[in-house]
Amino acid sequence: MGLLLPLLVARLGPSLACVQVALLAFVLYWASVVDVLVRRIPDLAIMAALAIWVAGLVISWPLGRPLGWELPRAVVGSFGIVVPALLASLFVSRASGRPGLGGGDLKLFLVVGLYFGLHWGAAVVVTSCLLGLLQEMLRVVWERSRVSGASGHGSGRSPWEPGTFPLCPAVSCATVIVALVGGAEVLS
Length: 188
What we know:
By secondary structure, the chain is mainly alpha-helical.
């Protein structure tokens, strides 16, 4: 995380948008740790991310950034991401009989839409899903190697409850990746 700010400044330039993304990344990092430990995304993290976005909006308005463009972009981005994610989650949940996305994950996607809009927000969601799949595959490989190599030491059980999956770390990493790949265009 220590290299994050210099990387973002190099890619986004020293701007309010850079500061917002860096602060968002730190909030998401904290929420990721909590999500891994207790399988909940703290509401305080969502509120902090929203406060950072609103503060950026308020600060940028007198500097010439028109609210007439930012607010519709944010609303379309948020709901354009959350509604399909919710519908897909409900479909998968009903088809598989397993839980889909949690409420905290949906709130995270809502926040991502505020910051990134529909186009780049969708890129964050897709990247999050790919990173989440990679994360889950690595977890399964780790569990299997631990169980086969346990030779009677420890239970070999995962600390994760069956059917739970901490998605926030993937969203956190995807947010930074998309900001670095998209550059200044991401938040404009």
